[in-house]
Amino acid sequence: MSARAPRVTINDVASRAGVSKGAVSMAFNDRPGVSRATRERIFEVARELGWAPHHTARSLSGRRAGIVGLAICRPARLLGLEPFYMEFISGIESVLTERGCSLLLRLVRDLDEEIALYEEWWRSKTIGGAILVDFQQEDPRVAPLRALGLPAVAVGHPSLTGGFPSVWTDDATAAADAVRYLAALGHRRIARVGGPAGLGHSAIRARAFEATMAELGLDGRRQVSTRFAGEEGARATRGLLLARDRPTAIVYDNDIMAVAGAAVAAEMGLVVPDDVSLLAWDDSQLCRLTHPPLSALSHDVHRFGAEVARALFEVIEGTRSGALQVPTPSLAPRGSTGPPRSRTGT
Questions:
Q1: What DSSP assignment string belongs to 201-226?
Q2: What range(s) does the HTH lacI-type domain occupy (predicted)?
């Protein structure tokens, strides 16, 4: 009978990585004092040796399994087409993998189903914590999930998340930047194709869009709400471009709708950007593959997901209770935006 291989210990990882045992512990607990390069070397060595700290098997709240829950209220078909969530989940997974934990993802039909699902997961000790997304104004999930005692991190502006620790981007500033950029190009009739009116971040963007248009003396009434789907973005674009005083620029709340909008412009014989400029939210490969490439409000969605996962571990470990703001989306100008063909009357 073959001898059993000796168990790998934290000392083995420290020795192979050329660091102290304390540095390994700090890396796995995401504590300051270890550089990014050293942290990555430690994680790489740990993976090579097949080692994980003892606490990862049970770290998520005592006896609970090393599983993080994420419920998303979106149709499966739409979610599969949306680059944002694919990148976001990839970022979450990158941190969970480092810690030997897993993501439990479920698509739900409505918020009542989501609340019931989290209650079931928590009471059955299936998950040790949760990531809450797509906050609405006066979100009905806040009270029951806080009462449940579920450790959770919210993805959204702190004004929406009911006291849950949150990770957020400054969507209002980004929306205002988009309007100012288009106005500087000479556009006076700018429209916005947004997400559902009740969705918190869509409402924040809508208010910032309208306020900035008013500040610049422009017509800010052209806003259309959708459910983020390509066909709805196409329908909204067609309606805007058929208007007698059609906009010369359109801002979209995601990349899928912007790509659909570009197709509608081509179908109507309009030239992008001469006849209409198009600007997408959530830069992605889709934006760069479209002809002309789509200008976008860009942020590192993979990194965003990773920051959310790290924040959740801090919540579970009792070291985070407040909000974390990540970098504001920045403009990435490309071929789909430019001055209108004639500034007269625009």
A1: HHHHHHHHHHHHHHHTT-B---EEE-
A2: 8-62
Report in angstroms the alpha-carbon separations of 252 from 76, 259, 281: 21, 9, 6
pLDDT score at 55: 46
Q: Are 193 and 224 in contact (CB under 8 A)?
A: yes
Nearest to 224 by CA among 243, 290, 216: 243
Task: Give which of 301, 290, 269 is closest to 337, Cα–Cα.
Answer: 290
* Strand-strand pairing, 295-298 and 330-332: antiparallel
Give CA–CA dist 322/332, Å, rounded: 30
Phi, psi dihedrals of residue 119, rounded to the nearest 5°? -60, -45
Q: How far apart are CA 144 and CA 258, in angstroms?
A: 36
Model confidence pLDDT, tens digit, residues 274-294: 999 999 998 999 999 999 999
Domains of the chain in sequence order: 9-41 (no CATH), 67-169+301-328 (3.40.50.2300), 171-298 (3.40.50.2300)
For the chain, 346 residues long, the average pLDDT of each consecutive 10-residue run is 62 90 78 80 83 52 70 80 89 92 93 95 91 95 93 96 96 98 97 94 96 91 90 96 95 96 97 98 92 96 96 88 94 97 54
